[in-house]
Amino acid sequence: MTKMAELAADLEKMGTADLGPDDCEPMICGCCNGSGEGRTDGSTCGACRGSGEFRDLEAEREREAERADYLYDQAKDRDLERALDNECYPDDDLPF
Predict the structure, then answer these.
(1) What are the tens digits of pLDDT across the range 4-34?
(2) CA-CA distance, 47 to 25, in Å (whole number)?
(3) Helix, strand, coil tally for the chain in percent (to 5)
(4) Residue 96 to residues 36, 80, 86, 91, 92: CA-CA distances in angstroms?
(5) Cβ distance 58 to 71 under 8 Å?
(6) Whole-prediction pTM value?
């Protein structure tokens, strides 16, 4: 039996084989020690935004940037469709 198989068998015996990321406790924020409080009275922690739980800020920024790109593309497509429906082009109303 391999080491991984032994570990899996031990976990099964303990009843923790089905533990996944949702069943684990979230990691607490290292900046505020899980309180969610900022450095001054009445402020919230800038790292976890007051939740007290660790947040992957880089992944959040990437998701926000992707969402902004998506929304921009959607708006651009809508504008193009409207322009084609009206048989005009976005630059037609420019004064020069």
Answers:
(1) 777 777 767 766 545 555 556 778 888 888 8
(2) 19
(3) 45, 5, 50
(4) 54, 21, 21, 10, 9
(5) no
(6) 0.41
